[in-house]
Amino acid sequence: TVSLGGSPIVTLFVESDTSIASERRFDKAISIPQLKARLEPITGILAHNQHLLLVRDSDKATIATIQGDDSVMLGAFPVENFMVLRVIDTNPGAASTRNQYTDVSLVQKYEMEDDKYDRLQDSVRDFKRRNKLGRFDDAKSSLSSDSSLPEPLCHRVNLNRNRKWVLRRRFLPSLFHSHLIKRGQVMYVGLTDFKQGVWVGVEYDEPVGKHNGTVAGKTYFTARNKHAAFVRPNRVQVGDFPELDLF
What we know:
This protein is an alpha+beta fold. The chain contains four helices and 13 strands. Among the domains are: 9-97, Phosphatidylinositol 3-kinase Catalytic Subunit, Chain A, domain 1 (Ubiquitin-like (UB roll), Roll), CATH 3.10.20.90; 163-169 and 180-238, CAP Gly-rich-like domain (SH3 type barrels). The N and C termini lie far apart (90 Å).
């Protein structure tokens, strides 16, 4: 305990079915009727309907029932710092309103129709649409919606790693190499051991790759040396891209 104005003060956690638990400080010299009067605005339970239990927080064991008249003080009970003061509403009609302030399932939720939300200009969806993020990314959506794929690319993590797709693709440049647009074919789509996430294994038309389909001693697909690389799915664009004639 600490001393405040010469009176011993104790810190308790006040709990009830009608309020969220809160930490409160009480003077041990306070009488039980005065204590209940202070608890009334905290818990919303009328003083004459309060049944007080002193509970040890560590094992939830009930230490004492706090009751008495003006001659009985809080300090008369074995109260210690950080115990729980449990306030029970003895009003017979309290059961019908119990948890009405803490049970969020009782709160009516506002739901907006999808077409109305789609017309909003300051929504998350509008932000993604304007900045071509997520499903509004043209490159990503074209890859996932290509009907020529054996399975939707959203299921690509379940594909056989040995499957080869002879599909023409254009591989988009990175931010720092905007002039480099490479063409080739997809040889592998799936997980890898060298890095997390889904990767697309490609064989470029020109020797602008990094390897031949083997990374760290593991062969994911077979390609000509310096023609193979792994790229992220959002760097792949689906389309009719024939090999370029450099001459």
